[in-house]
C-alpha cells in the first residue's frame, strides 16, 4: 500500500538570539498558514525535510509496464528513484571532498581503542531515547534493560566510555520512534535518501525528528542555549559512523555494478531486521506468484 503525500506549507525561521532586536520596519502580519520555527539545528532540519518532500512530488519514477519489471519496481518501493539518485550523488560528492578526508585524519590520529570508547559514549547518550521508545511500544522488559544499561555504563562505565552493562547481563536494546511508528502500524512510505543522512523513508524521517525532541541531552542543550554541544555531538557521530563502515562502503562502491541499487537493498534489509529485532518478516501474499504469468481463470461449470 503506497502512501500519498501532499505537502502545502509556508515557513519562516525566527531568530531567537538573545540581545538581538530587528531594526524598526513596517511589515504585514503573516497569514495564519505560516509556521514559525525557532532558529536551531533541529528547526533547520525540519525545513530541509519539508522542502525535500515537496520536491519529491515532482520527481517520481513511472512504473514499468512489463509485469516482471513492475513487480521488481513494487518490491524496491522506490518511486522517487530519480530524485534519490541525485541526492546520493550529492552525498557522495560531499563525502569525497569533506567527510571521508576528515574521517581518514580521525582514524590516523585517534587509536582504535579511543574510537571504540567514543563510539560507546555516543551510543550511551542514546539510551534514554531507547528507553522511551520501548515504553511507547509496550516493551517494558526491554525498556528496563536499556534503563539499567544507561545507569551502569554512565556510572561504573565512566559516561559510557567503558562497556560494563553487557558483562552484567544487560544486553544492548534497540528502539527509535521510527520503530515505534512501525509497531503502531504506520506504513513506511517510499524509499528516500536524505541529504547528509542517507537512506531512510518518510516514517523514519519523522522518527528522527521525534527522537531529537525526546532526547534529554539535546533538550537540555537547547534549553541552556548550548546548541554548539548538539552540533558537535552530531558531527562526531557522523565521523564515527563513517569510520566504522569506511572499508565496507569503499569495497561496495568499487565492486558493485550499481552502487545505488546495492546500497538500497542493504539499507532496506538492515532496517527491516532492526524493526523486527532480527525476526524474519512474513512473505507477502503473492510472494510465490510468477509476475509474468497471467492469472488463472476460474473453471467454467459444465452444468446447464
Please describe what this structure looks like.
The protein has 304 residues and is mainly alpha-helical. It has a domain at 80-275. It has helices at 41-56, 67-76, 81-109, 112-124, 127-136, 140-155, 177-183, 202-214, 216-223, 227-244, 246-255, 259-275; strands spanning 10-14, 34-38, 192-194, 198-200. The strands form 2 sheets. A two-stranded parallel ribbon has the order 1-2. A two-stranded antiparallel ribbon has the order 3-4. Strand 3 (192-194) and strand 4 form a beta hairpin. Helix 4 packs across helix 10, helix 5 (127-136) packs antiparallel against helix 6 and helix 9 runs antiparallel to helix 10 (227-244). It is globular. The chain starts with 9 loop residues before the first strand and ends in a 29-residue tail after the last helix. The model is unreliable at 1-23, 25-41, 284-292 and 294-298 (pLDDT under 50).
Amino acid at each position: 500500500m503506497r502512501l500519498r503525500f501532499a505537502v502545502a506549507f509556508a515557513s519562516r525561521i525566527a531568530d531567537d538570539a538573545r540581545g538581538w532586536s530587528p531594526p524598526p520596519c513596517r511589515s504585514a502580519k503573516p497569514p495564519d498558514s505560516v509556521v514559525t520555527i525557532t532558529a536551531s539545528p533541529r528547526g533547520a532540519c525540519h525545513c530541509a525535510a519539508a522542502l525535500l518532500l515537496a520536491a519529491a512530488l515532482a520527481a517520481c519514477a513511472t512504473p514499468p509496464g512489463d509485469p516482471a519489471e513492475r513487480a521488481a519496481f513494487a518490491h524496491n518501493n522506490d518511486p522517487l528513484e530519480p530524485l534519490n539518485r541525485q541526492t546520493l550523488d550529492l552525498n557522495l560528492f560531499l563525502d569525497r571532498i569533506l567527510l571521508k578526508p576528515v574521517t581518514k585524519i580521525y582514524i590516523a590520529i585517534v587509536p582504535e581503542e579511543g574510537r571504540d570508547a567514543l563510539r560507546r559514549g555516543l551510543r550511551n547518550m542514546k539510551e534514554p531515547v531507547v528507553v522511551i521508545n520501548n515504553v511507547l511500544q509496550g516493551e517494558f522488559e526491554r525498556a528496563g534493560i536499556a534503563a539499567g544499561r544507561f545507569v551502569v555504563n554512565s556510572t561504573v562505565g565512566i559516561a559510557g566510555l567503558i562497556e560494563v552493562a553487557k558483562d552484567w547481563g544487560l544486553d544492548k536494546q534497540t528502539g527509535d520512534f521510527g520503530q515505534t511508528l512501525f509497531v503502531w502500524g504506520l506504513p513506511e512510505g517510499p524509499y528516500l535518501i536524505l541529504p547528509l543522512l542517507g537512506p531512510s523513508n518518510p516514517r523514519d524521517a519523522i522518527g528522527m525528528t521525534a527522537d531529537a525532541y525526546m532526547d534529554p541531552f539535546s533538550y537540555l542543550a537547547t534549553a541552556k542555549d548550548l546548541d554548539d554541544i548538539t552540533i558537535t555531538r552530531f558531527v562526531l557521530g557522523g565521523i564515527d559512523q563513517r569510520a566504522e563502515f569506511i572499508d565496507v562502503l569503499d569495497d561496495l562502491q568499487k565492486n558493485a555494478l550499481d552502487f545505488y541499487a546495492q546500497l538500497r537493498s542493504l539499507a532496506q534489509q538492515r532496517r527491516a531486521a532492526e524493526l523486527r529485532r532480527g525476526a524474519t518478516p512474513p512473505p507477502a501474499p503473492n510472494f510465490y506468484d510468477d509476475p509474468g504469468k497471467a492469472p488463472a481463470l476460474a473453471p467454467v461449470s459444465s452444468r446447464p
